[in-house]
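Page 37, continued from 36.
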């Protein structure tokens, strides 16, 4: 969920810190106090386009920071995007706006807007401002329908995705069997030449390294023999032997000399062994010019193969294996092509059958979901509404099947046929449509935090009460943030913030304050009473808050 929002030098906000909580977080305030700036700042942090005009007058930059607490089930999805919360599950998303550019970061790593939206789309959904409404993204309609039908479709969706990957692999394999006979013959002839060349070479792993070391010895043979002869002469065993005999002749007079005698004896034995080793090396080692030439030629040949087939003997032998495999394919081309074609056709038929079963499930679920959403919309002041869910076939397979899903609506049934949501609904209506959908999907929706803006546009009375009850219901399963000017909605708050505009030192500033119970009642009285707040209005506000708590209590027990 969203733990906190930090805003600095954005529009009217000099500095603001908000600590959100679970449940229904309500934000209220006078018109023009800056409520839209708060939601707007969240939108900016999520990737909305930023302008230097948003920077508070007289400041060089603006800064927004969102702090999320990520549950375990979301960490796996974030891991696939190479995003990792800290050990406490905290993820920080920030945006800095300067006079020349804006920069977004996730846990101090600079990210592109596209990557930012991928990540935040898993954590938070804003409803009210068109540029962030998933409801306007037709692909999301398919996701919503599948979320509703999850118990029935989840396994089949997995099978379809796996089948689609197998289908693509076979399709790619089949493309490999498109060569004409002449080009196949040329490729096969060339492969035979390469296979024969590698096999005749008879190379073995480590041979190049051994030959290289041997060639190096050949090249420096004269220097080696001269140095070894000098070393043999320098090891003077006679002098060490004389020293040993001198010490041993007097050990009987002083036992302390025994250690020196033993040490000289060890040195004498070691030098004798070294002298024999040097002599043996010189006697056994022969530097033959003809052998040197043979080593040099073999080394050049192996390095030539490496230049053509790989950087090591292992890579060359691996290439030999692949070339043999490809040659076998070309020699049995017609038979293998027929097998690939058959396998592709079989998989295509299997995938089509899976997709058709999935489509049937989706169409059945769409009928039920449509009725439930339509019922919710009727309670949310869409008195005359025709809501439709179209499941249309695509011309090609996808990992999600063969379906395209779109939500359509008409608020004037009989006069105007249902059309795409973005063409018909206003911002407030879209928010209420999403509220209806979220109410139906409260148990299956996987996005933890929902923000509703403009949800109370054009409603009052009973409709406002219904909206408040649904927000409270959704808030039992999700964290909900909602800006409102209606007391019916504000009364349902689990956490209530007041946004207030003041003038300090000649500058307009926006302040945000979390309200106590008494302050919540006073704010409800303001929303109820307008300019004049009487004792009667306060009593009504107190009663409204009490009734709201009673309405929430059954869901809490």
């Amino acid at each position: 969920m969203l733990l906190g929002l930090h805003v600095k030098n954005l529009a009217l906000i000099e500095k603001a810190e908000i600590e959100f909580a679970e449940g229904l977080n309500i934000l209220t305030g006078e018109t023009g106090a800056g409520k839209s700036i708060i939601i707007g700042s969240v939108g900016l942090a999520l990737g909305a386009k930023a302008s230097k005009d948003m920077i508070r007058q007289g400041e060089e930059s603006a800064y927004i920071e969102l702090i999320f607490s990520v549950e375990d089930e979301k960490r796996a999805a974030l891991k696939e995007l190479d995003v990792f919360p800290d050990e406490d599950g905290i993820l920080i998303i920030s945006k800095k706006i300067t006079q020349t550019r804006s920069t977004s970061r996730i846990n101090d790593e600079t990210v592109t807007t596209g990557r930012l939206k991928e990540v935040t789309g898993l954590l938070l959904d804003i409803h009210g401002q068109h540029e962030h409404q998933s409801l306007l993204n037709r692909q999301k309609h398919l996701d919503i329908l599948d979320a509703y039908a999850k118990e029935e479709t989840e396994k089949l969706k997995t099978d379809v995705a796996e089948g689609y990957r197998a289908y693509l692999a076979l399709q790619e394999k089949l493309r490999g069997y498109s060569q004409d006979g002449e080009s196949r013959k040329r490729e096969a002839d060339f492969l035979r030449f390469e296979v024969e060349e590698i096999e005749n070479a008879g190379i073995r792993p480590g041979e190049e390294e051994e030959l290289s070391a041997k060639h190096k010895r050949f090249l420096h043979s004269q220097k080696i023999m001269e140095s070894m002869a000098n070393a043999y002469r320098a090891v003077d065993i006679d002098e060490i032997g004389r020293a040993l005999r001198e010490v041993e002749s007097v050990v009987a007079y002083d036992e302390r000399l025994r250690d020196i005698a033993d040490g000289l004896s060890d040195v004498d034995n070691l030098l004798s062994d070294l002298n024999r080793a040097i002599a043996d090396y010189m006697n056994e080692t022969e530097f033959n010019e003809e052998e040197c030439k043979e080593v040099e030629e073999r080394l050049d040949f192996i390095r030539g193969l490496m230049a053509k087939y790989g950087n090591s003997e292992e890579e060359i032998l691996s290439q030999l294996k692949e070339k043999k495999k490809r040659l076998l394919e070309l020699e049995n081309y017609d038979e293998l092509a027929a097998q690939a074609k058959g396998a592709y056709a079989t998989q295509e038929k299997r995938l089509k059958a899976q997709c058709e079963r999935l489509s049937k499930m989706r169409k059945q679920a769409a009928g039920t979901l449509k009725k439930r959403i339509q019922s919710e919309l009727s309670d949310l002041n869409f008195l005359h509404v025709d809501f439709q869910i179209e499941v249309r076939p695509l011309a090609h397979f996808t990992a999600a099947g063969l379906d395209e899903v779109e939500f359509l609506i008409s608020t004037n049934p009989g006069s105007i046929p249902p059309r795409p949501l973005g063409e018909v609904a206003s911002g407030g209506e879209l928010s209420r449509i999403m509220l209806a959908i979220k109410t139906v999907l409260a148990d299956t929706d996987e996005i933890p935090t929902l923000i509703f803006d403009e949800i109370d546009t054009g409603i009052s009375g009973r409709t406002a009460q219904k909206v408040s009850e649904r927000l409270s219901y959704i808030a039992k399963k999700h964290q909900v943030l909602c800006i409102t000017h209606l007391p019916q909605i504000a009364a349902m708050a689990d956490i209530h913030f007041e946004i207030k505009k003041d003038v300090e030192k000649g500058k307009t500033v926006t302040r945000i304050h979390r309200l106590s119970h008494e302050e919540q009642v006073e704010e409800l009285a303001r929303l109820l009473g307008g300019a004049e707040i009487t004792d009667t209005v306060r009593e009504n506000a107190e009663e409204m808050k009490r009734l709201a708590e009673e309405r929430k209590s059954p869901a809490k027990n």
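The two ends are 23 Å apart (CA to CA). Flag for discussion at group meeting. The chain has a mean pLDDT of 86.
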